[in-house]
Design a protein that fits this description.
With 416 residues, this protein is α+β, with helices and mostly antiparallel strands. It contains seven helices and 21 strands. The protein has a seven-stranded mixed beta sheet with strand order 17-16-15-18-19-21-20, sandwiched between helices. The protein has a five-stranded mixed barrel with strand order 1-2-3-5-4. A three-stranded antiparallel beta sheet has the order 6-11-12, with helices on one face.
Length: 416
């Protein structure tokens, strides 16, 4: 209970002093991967801790309703605590769970979806166990290491943000979440960056790209690369979005397709289609499929991918978000709609249009279950009911997960 350094200017001195050391029991995890404990009903968040542990922690922030503290010592470890694979774990902000047995990671991610459904949607809903990634490490096909503006005479730190910071970087020489080929390219790029820094070629920092695909490894964001999912080949620009755990994608897309067709819809709409991932992998299950996308660049790739794979019943249109379903020439009550919006979720205008279109089913894919739950409130009020909730662990060792929620028009029955 002593001060170890001068507190920041805006530090709130209650209920703990700056850098006061406390002992507490960790009882749960947040969806950000932090351990949660309490002292006299006051909540304290401690990174890199696990439920069931007794720990010593050092407070660095008091908010209005909670405090945050750094882990000092694990007094009583969880039986699910394991040794991390990465030398940077605990400092690098990229991973939150390398110290956590993988099966338990999956259980907690499943539990977090269930808790979000209750806290944000106020329903108790069965959540199917999170589907594991076939690979726990070396699964990522894309990384974007950063470095800040180099200081004269000092090589920049090339890597990722330090845990709990917004501007400090951890120098990362290799990452266990990617393949050896990607780590080899990282070593090459590090050497190039350090040389150019010595030559004063950088006036500011930069974000690099390393992306593995079926033809090799690319670091040019403008390069055309290919990926294969099931029987479908996708071409796209290396710097553009494409799901970056290729090992789970066949199972992931097959599940989304099966959910879209389960109520007997004849037609498919993929409302955030990108370069055609869900639309093209599911098109064979429908009479006609249409992908709608607001990015002209992505639509061009989707059209090209349909041609290259001889998918004749899929078409793609450039859609204005304000009138996205005006392009659809088949009835909503015979259609299924797949939506996979960005992390911020869908806006009210889009959800209103979706409800007015009135599809038999909606398959909502999300990389951010919190915004997904917010949008579910609108869809449930608009005449839909939840049929199934299935998390997928596309990002082992991290707090991130994908969640697929299938909604049916109220009164619609599942078909075999």
């Amino acid at each position: 209970m002593s001060k170890h350094s001068q507190p920041p200017r805006k530090f709130r001195p209650e209920p703990f002093e700056y850098h006061q050391e406390i002992e507490l029991e960790i009882t749960s995890l947040t969806n950000m991967g932090q351990g949660v404990g309490r002292i006299n009903d006051w909540v304290i968040f401690v990174r890199f801790t696990l439920p069931g542990e007794k720990v010593k922690a050092r407070v660095y922030r008091n908010d209005k309703n909670f405090s945050e503290a750094d882990l000092v010592e694990v007094i009583t470890p969880s039986p699910h605590r394991i040794d991390p694979n990465c030398q940077y774990f605990g400092e690098c902000g990229g991973c939150q769970y390398q110290h956590f047995d993988y099966e338990e990671q999956l259980k907690w991610k499943t539990q977090q979806v269930k808790e979000l459904l209750w806290h944000m949607v106020r329903i108790e809903q069965e959540v199917l166990p999170a589907i594991a990634s076939p690979k726990e490490y070396a699964y990522r096909s894309k990384i974007t290491p950063h470095f800040a503006k180099p200081k004269e005479g000092i090589s920049p730190k090339l890597g990722y943000l330090k845990a709990g910071t917004r501007f400090s970087y951890v120098d990362v020489e290799e990452c266990p979440l990617v393949s050896q080929a990607m780590n080899d390219r990282l070593s090459e790029l590090r050497a190039e960056v350090f040389q150019k820094a010595d030559e004063k070629a950088y006036r500011k920092g930069a974000t690099l790209l390393i992306r593995e695909h079926i033809d090799g490894v690319s670091s040019d964001p403008k390069a055309t690369i290919r990926e294969k999912v099931g029987d479908i080949h996708f071409s796209f620009t290396a710097g553009e979005f494409f799901q970056n755990n290729p090992h789970i994608l066949p199972q992931f897309t097959e599940y989304v397709s099966s959910q879209a067709k389960r109520v007997g819809a004849r037609f498919l709409v993929d409302a955030y289609c990108g370069s055609g991932l869900f639309c093209l992998t599911a098109a064979n299950d429908f009479e006609k499929a249409i992908g709608v996308e607001v990015s002209e660049h992505s639509v061009k790739w989707a059209v090209q991918n349909a041609q290259d794979n001889n998918v004749d019943n899929a078409s793609f249109v450039l859609g204005d978000a304000a009138s996205i379903f005006e392009h659809i020439d088949f009835p909503g009550d015979e259609s299924a709609v797949i939506i996979d919006p960005p992390r911020k979720g869908s806006n009210e205008d889009f959800l209103t249009q979706l409800i007015q279109f009135g599809p038999k089913s909606i398959v909502y894919v999300s990389c951010n279950p919190s915004t997904q739950m917010r949008d579910l409130n609108t869809l449930l009020s608009g005449g839909y009911e939840i049929a199934e909730v299935q998390p997928f662990d596309l990002f082992p060792q991290t707090k991130h997960l994908e969640c697929v929620v299938t909604l049916n028009k109220t009164g619609t029955t599942k078909e075999s």
